[in-house]
Every structure is written in structure tokens, then in C-alpha cells.
Amino acid sequence: MATTLELPGEEFILPGTRTCAGCGLSIAYRYILKALGPKTIVTLPACCLTILHGIYPKTPIAVNAVNNTFASTAASATGLVAGLRARGKNDITIVGMAGDGGTFDMGIQALSGAAERQTDFIYICYDNEAYMNTGVQRSSATPLGAYTTTTPVLTKQQPKKNFLKIMEAHNLSYMATTCSSYPGDLYEKFLKAKNKSGTRFMHVASPCPAGWGYPASDTVRIGRLAVESGVVVLYEVENGELRLTGKSLSIARSGRKKPVDEYLKAQGRFSKMPPELVAEFQKEVDRNWEDILNRAKL
Amino acid sequence: MSETKIITGNETAALAAKLCKVQVIAAYPITPQSKIPETLSSYVESGQLDAEFVRVESEHSAMGVCISASIAGARVFTATSANGLAYMNEQLHWAAGARVPIVMAVANRGLGAPWTILNDMQDTLSQRDTGWMQLYCRNNQEIMDKVILAFKLAERVLVPTMVCFDGFRLSHTVMPVKVPSQKDVDEFLPPFEPVYELDPEKPVNINPVVMTDPLPGPDGELCPSYMGFRRRLQETLEHVLPIYREIGKEFAERFGRDYSDPLYRYMADDAEILFVAQGSVASEATAATDILRERGIKAGVIGLNIFRPFPAEDLAEATNGARVITVFEKGISYGYEGVLCSELKAALFSHNGHRPEVLNFIVGLGGKDLNPQDLVMAIEDVLGETKEGRKIRTPQWLGSGV
Ligand SMILES: Cc1ncc(C[n+]2csc(CCOP(=O)(O)OP(=O)(O)O)c2C)c(N)n1
Ligand code: SF4
Ligand SMILES: [Mg+2]
Q1: How many Å apart are CA B364 and CA A238, to the nearest integer?
Q2: pTM (whole model) above 0.90
Q3: Which residue's alpha carbon is nearest to atom 5 within ligand 2?
Q4: B208–A56: do the CB atoms touch at under 8 Å?
Q5: How far apart are CA B398 and CA B391, in angstroms?
Q6: What is the DSSP letter of B130?
Q7: Engineered SS bond to B366: which of B83, B110, B200, B393, CB 3.0-4.6 Å?
Q8: B263-397 domain in CATH 3.40.630.30?
Q9: Would you list the domain boundaries of chain B?
């Protein structure tokens, strides 16, 4: 796997973005664009990515971008694909990129539709596990026990939606999970995605210091803890075959998966979690981990 | 050379889109419009039309696809009705703000609840303030002509346009339609040339967050604020009517049918009592006028070819001689009165028109049949009443039964 130093030097995010310090999304996006290159058009809804793309008339992003409404990222991508194809332009990578809210919740209909039609584009969901742009409200991607501004007293009482299974049910040509703390793994998966056709779905676990309650300097550590404890599992699915990658593969081989405690304790959003909920969280993580190991035949 | 076909309004709309060589179509079925995407998909699948047809999973996505396909530089067409149009609402505002010249056929239908699949105009009237232009059709020939006109107009001023026609009454009724030749349409409507290309060498961020005050661009020049963008949309629409006239004249020279007047006029010049209406109501009013004239009543009709932008000045001038104006509408702004009625009154006020009596009739909601005879009776009732009796009236509902 490529180390960070071996990745292309060309930058598509210029200095001066408006995201919070330590934003996992902006780290991931930097490597995503390095992999996809300049012949990319990104369509995006309202979310923190809109802020990253800057305020008119300036943008720090050096690829073309088309903003769209909250529920219509995949529809907008479909329109770009259809419009360019109708005009005989076939050498541009079309990307629809949205947050967990714009994907797990409001964008699901358009995404499912586009995927079922096998639209030729890459859909990226960067997942910071809440509606951050509107002030950290709960989404269906918010994990069990997390404080958000709409689960302020009891914390979230339901586990995170297993959206990856939903996307797998669409029999995509390629799908992969990634995390902003593992740029090499992420970069290689996006290169792979770029060279496939049909609908490709990429999940990017993106820690968020502002919404998760940890110091900005800890973003890489938090992402690593998520993977090391199996809360986030790095894998890819091609032709129905699931393969673990990177850190998740080495954890599977070594059997050294950390308990979730350290991950939970490092974040303010889980500070209200009673021990029973922590145990339930751990059980959910273990069940998912076993399920994936079985599928990866490990 | 044109040929005459006996076809429904829906078939007409699809055929018109084909003649306009649309490049991307994204549409979702809803009665009474469904035949339009069905016909277009058969054109595409049989190779008669070289276009991308996207069979979307909703109207919200249909308009989402249309917006971005237009941004990618394609000529784009869609069609819907009623709840489908309402479901698009957010996207309609977005399309107008994004200045994409999409043309959409709307087979007008009433909105639930309760459900109806039948015709009225509540669907498009409710979208009056989205920034779209709206053309209304009296018959199937007008559907053919106005789809072609709409593309020319929309692409000239970069504002999306609805071509509205009565569901069932036109969408499912066969009428003779003169179908222009492909050559004539090609010459009238050359291929769409986008204003800009999404060029990887010159990346841009389209429709981003815009602040309340103008900010300087990289070269130091001030760029529009949010209000600046929105004002430009209004300014464009304020300048559309002369362009509409010009395109209408060009259309008349080539195709022999004249829509250069934003108004349809029938015996209006010397009329003492005028019908004002849109869509097929104007056709019924035309037939009613013939009957009334036979009975010695000086009736006439003013119909609207274009409702947005609103031809206020023309309307004030055209109604100047009438003593009584009766506005018949298949829609209402609930809690007040018919939209066209309010707008007519505002036009008279703004343009120093005279003060006729303006009476409002709500008709034909949810497909309630409307015959010329109904209009005749309504007018005879009006004329039989004293002026005082007429003045205090709220909109009258004709034919609503119990
Ligand atoms: C139709 C609609 N409803 C609500 C909103 C308000 N809104 C803007 S961004 C956002 C949340 C975005 O959350 P997510 O997709 O997770 O992205 P994040 O901000 O977390 O990066 C919401 C609810 C909207 N723009 N459009
Ligand atoms: S709220 Fe979170 S995701 Fe949004 S910009 Fe800040 S750190 Fe990034
Ligand atoms: Mg989010």
C-alpha cells in the first residue's frame, strides 16, 4: 500500500478552507481528489462539504463542482452523466458526495434509484454520524448512546443504521469503506473505484471534533481507534466478494481487536453512556465484526 | 411543409419535444401526463430520438436530473402533473435560480386531498412564484407550438418554462394538429449552446453559498450578492415580453400561426362584458361568446398565452372598454380569490386602467365539466342582477353541487 509520502503531490484543495480545525472530512477529501484527478465533477448537497467548497465568488477546490438540493445528490449526478453523455463527453468522472444525513436519510431514495439504474458514477458518503452543518442533530447514522442536540437528555436509543448492507443489496460493481485516518487505503480504493464503471459506493468514516467532542489535534487518533476497535471496518466488495483491507485485515489476522471503551471515552458525545449501553454497543460491534469476518472467510 | 395528425395533447407534447431534438429526458409517471414519458421512451428505444431517457424514481429526482443535465449543456425536457409538480417544488425554485432553460409540459390536474386525477389548474397556479415562465394552451395545436416556442424563449433568456394544458380535456382528447417539418423546427430552433462548459482547466463552483453583501472575486471586482442574483432573475423576467413577441412573430412567419400577442383575443374590441380565462376555459368562453352575441349581448374573450411573466399592461389595455369583467378560473388562492382575478385587478390599478366590475368564478375543479352553456348562464345571471348585488360578492363557485 502507498504511504502518504508516495501519493501524488498535486493538490486539489488549496489552502484556506472554511472547515473546523481537525476536520476529518477535509483530510479525506484531499486524498479522494488526488485519486480522482482534475477530470472530475463533484455534485454536492447542503452539508459541511458545501462549506469546504467555499463561499461565492471564491472556492479552494480545484475541480468543477455543482451544488444541488439536500435530497438530490444522486439525481444530480445522474443528470451530469446523462447530459455529458448526450453531448458525447465520456472522459469525465462524475461524483456525488454527501454527508450521512444526505445519504442515510434524505438522499436514500435518489441514491437507491440511481444505483438500481446502474448509473455510471461514484457516490461518496462521508459519515460524521450526525447533521453537523445544522448544529449536530441526530441522523440515522448516529451511533447508539451518542449525545446530539436532538438527543440531548437520553442520548440516541437506537443503533446506527446498517446502510452498507442496504447498498450491498444493490449489487454494485464496487463498494468500499474507508476512513480519513488511513489515507493510503483510501487512496487505493478510490483509484480502483475510478477505473470501474456502473454505480460505485464509497463510505468514508470522517471524525468530527466539533460534533464528537474531542480536541482538534486528535482526529487521526480517533479514526484509528474506530478502526482498531472494529467500530469502523475497512473492506471492499467486488462482484459480491468481500475483502478486508489495511488495518482491519491485520487486526483480523492478529486477533487484536481493541474493546470499544477507549474509543468511547475519548469523545464527549458518549460521556452520558451508562455501562449497559456500552455493553450493548460492544455487542453490536462484535456481531458486525464476526459477520464481516465470516463473509471474508477469515 | 407540415402534415396534419389527429392526436392527443400528450402525444402532441411528446412529438413536439422530439421535433425539438431534446437530449435528456427525465420523467416520472402520473395521470394524466403518463403518456408523454411513455411516448418519449418509445421514441428513444426505437431509435427515432437520440436522447438519454432517465427513468427516475420520483419527480424530485426528475427535476434534479434535468437541472444538472442542463448545467452539463444538454437540451432537457420533462413532464408532470399535480402532486408530481408539488413534489418538485424545491427543485423548481432551484432550477429558476440556477437559470437552466428546462422545458416542462404540465398536464394540469387537481391536487389532493381528497384525491382527484382530473383537471384543474391548482397545480401550476401554486407554482406561480418559483421564477418559472408559464405558457397556457387552449388546444392541442397550441401544445405543439408552445413547446417549440418555449425552448426558443427559455434558451434565449435562461429561465425554465412550463407549458401548461388541461389534463384529460386536452391531454386525452384527439384533435387535428399541424405538425411542422423537422427542417423547419431545426431552422427555428438551432441546437442548444450552453453559456459555459464545465472545463477541467477552469474549475468553477456552481450555485454555492452566496452572502448577503457582494464580495470581491479573485480579480478584486465585486460579485453579486444573493439578492443580486435574485434581482437579475426578476429583471430578466421583466424584459421577457418584448422577446416573447419577437419570437412569436418569427414563429408566425415560419409556421403561419401567430402567438406574438401575449393575449388571446376574441371579439374583445367592442365587448361590454369580457371573459378572462386561461387554457381550455378560454376555448369554452369563445363558444359562449358566440351564443351570447347571437342573443345580442356584446361579449368577448381575453385569454392568456403567457401567465408568467404576467402581461399586465396588455391586459389593462385589452380590458379597457369593458363594463363587466368575469374571470373564470380553475384554481384559487384559498382564503382570498382566484389568482388571475387578483392579478387582473392589480394590473388595472397599476396601469391606471378604468374601474370595471370584476367578478370571479371558480369553475371546473377536480374535472367538473364546464360547457359554454354554463358560462352563458353565469353571464345572464350577472346581467340580471343589480350592480349593488354584484359588488359584495366573494368568488362564486359554479357547479360545485352540495
Ligand atoms: C430539504 C432540506 N431540509 C433540510 C435542510 C437543512 N440541512 C442542511 S445541511 C443538513 C444536515 C446535513 O447533514 P449531513 O448530510 O450529515 O452533512 P454534515 O453537515 O454532517 O456534513 C440539513 C438538515 C436542507 N438543506 N434541505
Ligand atoms: S462540523 Fe465536523 S465535519 Fe463539519 S466542518 Fe466541522 S469538523 Fe468538519
Ligand atoms: Mg453528517
Answers
A1: 57
A2: yes
A3: A19
A4: yes
A5: 18
A6: G
A7: B110
A8: no
A9: 3-193+245-251, 263-397
Domain spanning B3-193+245-251: which superfamily?
Thiamin diphosphate (ThDP)-binding fold, Pyr/PP domains (3.40.50.970)
- Within 8 A of A110 by CB-CB distance, chain B residues are 57-58, 60-61, 64
Q: Which of A57, A61, A67 is closest, CB to CB, to B223?
A: A57
Contact list in B for residue A74 (CB cut-off 8 A) is 61
A49: Cβ below 6 Å to ligand 2?
no
Question: B330 near B374, Cβ under 8 Å?
Answer: no
Domains of chain A: 10-295 (3.40.50.970)
Find the closest chain B residue to A12 by CA distance.
Answer: B203
ipTM comes to: 0.97
B283: its cell numbers = 376555448
**pLDDT exceeding 70 applies to what percent of chain A?**
100
pLDDT at site B385 = 82
Full DSSP string of B286-336? HHHHHHHHHTT--EEEEEESEEES--HHHHHHHTTT-SEEEEEES---TTS
